[in-house]
Design brief:
0% of the residues lie in helices and 42% in strands. By secondary structure, the chain is mostly beta strands.
Amino acid sequence: MDSPTIATDRPAVANSSVVVPEGGFQVENGFLATDTGGGHVVDFPESNLRYGLLQKTELRLAVPDYFRGLSGDSAQATGIGDMALGLKQQLGPLGGFDVSLIAFTSLPTGADQVSSHGYDPACSCPGPAR
């Protein structure tokens, strides 16, 4: 049996348009440094845990990140961010490219300075790829 090909969501910040193969488990990590008009913030580990639930469906867990302000500005947020749970459904390939729908919600698990303090549902539609 051939090993399945995986498509990671890294090294880019954008999500890939394909799911993890059924029964597969993938861990992705990253690091983000931001400069917003002189305010410097680092954010890590930017971890996504992805599990292939069905042939074109995956479960997703975004592990809470740690945010750290570096410029000494007390207005900069420092602490652990919110966790997010989601589901990704691959809709393609459609006409030679892949498209998927990701529905997720963040859970208010973070520090006061960083958390949204609410359940924030959202969706995205990554694509096309190939």
